[in-house]
Write a structure and sequence with these properties.
Elements lengths: L10 H5 L3 H15 L6 E6 L11 E4 H4 L8 E10 L3 E9 L3 E5 L2 E5 L2 H6 L3 E7 L2 E10 L6 E6 L23 E5 L8 H5 L22 E9 L3 E2 L2 E2 L5 E4 L2 E2 L3 E2 L2 E9 L1 H5 L2 E2 L10 E2 L6 E3 L21 E2 L4 E6 L10 H17 L2 H16 L1 H11 L6 H5 L7 H10 L6 H17 L14 E3 L7 H11 L3 H17 E2 L4 E2 L2 E3 L4 E2 L5 H17 L7 H17 L7 E2 L9 E2 H17 L4 H21 L10 E2 L8 H6 L2 E2 L6 H12 L1
Parallel strand pairs: 1-19
Antiparallel strand pairs: 1-22, 2-9, 3-8, 3-10, 4-7, 4-9, 5-6, 5-8, 11-17, 11-20, 12-16, 13-18, 14-15, 14-17, 20-21, 23-26, 24-25, 26-27, 28-29, 30-31
Helix pairs in contact: 2-20, 7-8, 7-11, 7-20, 11-12, 11-13, 13-14, 14-16, 15-16, 15-17, 16-18, 17-18, 17-20
Length: 664
Amino acid sequence: MMGYIELENSAAVFSGNNTEKVIRLLADRYCSLNPAEPYVWRSFDESGIQADKKAVYHFDFDRRFPKAEIGDYAVAIGDLFCPSAKGSAFLIACKNPVKLYLNRELVFQSNGAKERSGEKDRVQVTLHEGINRFVIVAEKTKLGFYCMLQNAMPQWEPCNYIMPFEEREGEAGFVYQLFPCDAPMPEEAALWGEKELLSWLPVVEEKPLKEDGLFSAAAVFELDEDRNVTWQKAPDVQMWVDEKEATGLLKKGEHTLHMFGTLAGIHAVRAEGVALHPPVPVHGRCTPYLVAGPMDKCTFMPVGTVAEGEMVWRPALEGMALRPYVETNLFGKWTYPLGVTLYGMKRAAEKLQDKKMLDYVLSHVKQVTGISRYAAYDTEKYGFAGVNQQLCWLDALDDCGSFGALMLRCDPRGEDPDVRRLADKIGHYMLHEQPCTKDGAFQRRDDTVWADDMYMSVPFLCRYGEMTGDSTPLDFAAKQMLHYKKLLFMPEKNVMAHMRCLQHGLHNGIPWSRGNGWVIFSLSELLQVLPKEHGDREKLIAFFRELTAGYLALQDETGMWHQVLDDKKSYLETSATAMFICAFMRGFRGGWYEQDMAESAKEAAYKAWKGITENAIDREGNLYGVCRGSGFSFSRNYYRSLSWNFNDTHGIGIVMLAGVELMN
């Protein structure tokens, strides 16, 4: 089968035999397209329409409009920002007639049968790059006045809506309003325009926060020249500029201001020629400063942290909160593919002694771990968080294992309190909460077992055992690997089936390439740290050799492996090929092979790298042939038809890591 690119356009021609150059090509492209960016902070009206912890938005118009009459209708509008265009699916259920419009197109209209049953409808849509406007129209009937809206995969495609109209300044949430039954629908400009032409709820008003007690306040200001600043303040307010007494000459440039006192006193602080701003950019209604409290003493805590008593910064307005949102394509997100990507990039940075690349990885990890307490607080108080959605969801190994392993690669001893707290949370989940079969093997909540879950668990358990010094996680990982061999291994081919249905007691018999890659790569992670005297080590080395024999027999003449390993008509799959390289080279260096197999595995790894650089990486660092995220099936046609994605994060980092393993 031919590769994805012409040889003359390949990384192999561009770089020759220089593996380092290929790694840098991939890393530089990724980092330049996904720069380090902070979270977006938006104000949020606590009286507004909220999502629950499972990302279900509840449009409970019965509660919001208790005096509505039969036939009255409500309209709700929310904008959704998408970093790039994509297809997506949404779930809708209602008790009454509901229409959903997306970007002026009617995409859903309910029917009477499902209104009575409350059954959910699945609506497939296309989201544009940039802002997408959702308009919901719901009519009150005797059955009720309610509908719900949820993305079909919210932990993967979080939907955090922004209020429309320039006057709302990007505040989080929906606007909504009730209309009498005989009123015509609002004009198009009122629904789809940029200006707020009607009076929508929540009402745009700025009532200063009035609470008893003492509060901290934080702001920034900028001076265009060196000068003395005289503050007008009440006697009960203490002030610090740049964490020093707020007196004397201030230099040109930006300064921080902290205040401590009653809210009335803080509201009255002034200085001629000084314009205060919140310490982070805030979209939506806000005051020139943020406040936290009431508290006993002033705190200089950064925005995005949680103080004792679950105190956080917020606008000094009645009923307003401050919430963070991740609105980048990739940076600052906690997902399992990014755990794979950044693991490979970290190892590459260390091998190439590239501080800039290493700092990029560490800054990503620090951003998601540093916001973790705030995300947990936000989830408990308001529902579905705008950051760290998978970690807050925590319903499967996918949600925590891969990125958790990366996190401990960056902080092996858990010296950062946020890292240690998260590691313990994930460790407890894996060891005590994740569903298992009666024999103790990890299973999914739909009574299936997937080969993928070896990567979603074993590398983390290895790192967690090293961090704690406890042998339990490592023992548990070894047993999981042996359980999965029993459930999925196909001895006639020495490869793994992708999944097993526990209800029917059958695996699907289909050797999906990346599923196999997950297994042998994770097994290599385990064997690197498992003590030589461990009781299961010899069984696991024998398993490693069996898998290697199976994969060696199925390598394509290009050096790569196919999407379905034993189907040469399926496409060349890059991520699995890279994982086989990693595992083979680790086995070669670790002495896990007998001599003949060691040489064969090493030769296959170099051939595979040549295949990737000639067929799947172009001279601009674009990566081809990485299978998209998979479900499962008992049909081979399902796996054959699973398309590959361009520059998919399941492959970028593991290809870099494959290059590193060849250089070691």
